[in-house]
Amino acid sequence: MIRVCISGIGKTGKEIAKFLLEQKDIKLVSAICSPNSNKKGKDLGEIIGKGNTGVKIESSDKIEQIVFRTKPDVVVDFSSPEAAARNAKVFSKLKVNIVIGTTGFSDFTLKRLFLLANKHRNGIVYAPNITLGVNVLMLLTNLAANLLSSYDFQITEVHHKNKKDSPSGTAKKIADEIEKGIKHSGNDDTEVQVPITAIRAGGVVGKHDVMIIGEDDKIEISHESFSRKAFALGTLRAVKFIKGKVGYYEMNDVLNLKKVLNDYIQEENKSNKKRYKNLLGKNEIKAL
Asked: Is the pTM of the predicted complex or chain greater than 0.85?
């Protein structure tokens, strides 16, 4: 049984809390909101429409008392960038592992998260790209950039009108994967800069499109979250991954997609060898 505390009871936090309460191997033991939130003091179930849960929502200025009393193994943080960075310092000192899905961090703050995990020997998963599908998109984009390094790349991301960070943390990670793919291809001629178009409109949960455009053809890779349950599914994977671990991780570590790809290629190679053996005689195989 993994004991979990949730920090940040906004739209995504509420969906994740609801999902985690349904899991047999997860026990939601505490919930944290900002000091000025009107959710403070209420039962979590009242906020998420689940009836009485026995989990009282408490203020982030009492983190140490909350941790000592409820003893979470993992904290899931979907608060604001400022609050998540501040909270991470306290949780790390208390040696509580953290899954951070909050976006909008500066490069400096991300380096601090890495240093916190190494200094205090706790585990941190930083996952602005926490949905499973968008991580597959990143892997495919990286491969495409490696194979089509001479093509032009363009990212368009669309989110609801209340999302503050622009471009999204996920769009930046996609751009990083494209840049890595191009560099690994051996194309070091120019500085790689991937343009990102950010749109904030309506109630869109999250959509990321990558256009890969050559002189004679175009490829598009797209991912869209239809509901925030997609975030909850990724969060569950991250929580199970980080329990008991030490160090700084990202979602590609959680899902280990590159190993999946390598295993697939090895299996394909084995299948091809078997097929050739069936088609060709021993002398013909030696001739190859």
From this structure: no
55-97 pLDDT tens trace: 999 999 999 999 999 999 999 999 999 999 999 999 999 999 9
CB 110 within 8 A of CB 240: no
Q: Which one of 14, 39, 159, 223 is the catalytic residue? A: 159
103: left (phi over 0), alpha (psi -120 to 50) or beta: beta
The half-sphere exposure of 271 on its side-chain side, counting CA atoms within 13 A, is 6
Domains of the chain: 2-130+229-258 (3.40.50.720), 132-224 (3.30.360.10)
pLDDT at residue number 278: 64
User: At 20, which helix (H) or strand (E)?
Assistant: helix 11-21
* SS3 letters across 30-94: EEEECCCCCCCCCEHHHHHCCCCCCCEEEEHHHHHHHHHHHCCCEEEECCCHHHHHHHHHHHHHC
Letter for the amino acid at 272?
N
Q: Kindly name the residue from 163, 183, 207, 240 that is annotated as catalytic.
A: 163
Q: Which residues contact 104 (CB under 8 A, 6 or more apart)?
A: 80, 81, 164, 165, 169
Whether the ω angle into residue 195 lies within 30 degrees of 0, i.e. cis, is no
The mean pLDDT of the chain is: 90
250 CB-contact burial (10 Å; exposed 0-12 / middle 13-18 / buried 19+): middle
Nearest to 102 by CA among 238, 244, 243, 257: 238
Q: Is position 163 annotated as part of the catalytic site?
A: yes
Short-list 81, 93, 87, CA closest to 122: 93
- Residue 277: active-site member: no
DSSP string, 160-202: -TT--SSS-HHHHHHHHHHHHHHHHTT--SS-----EEEEE-T
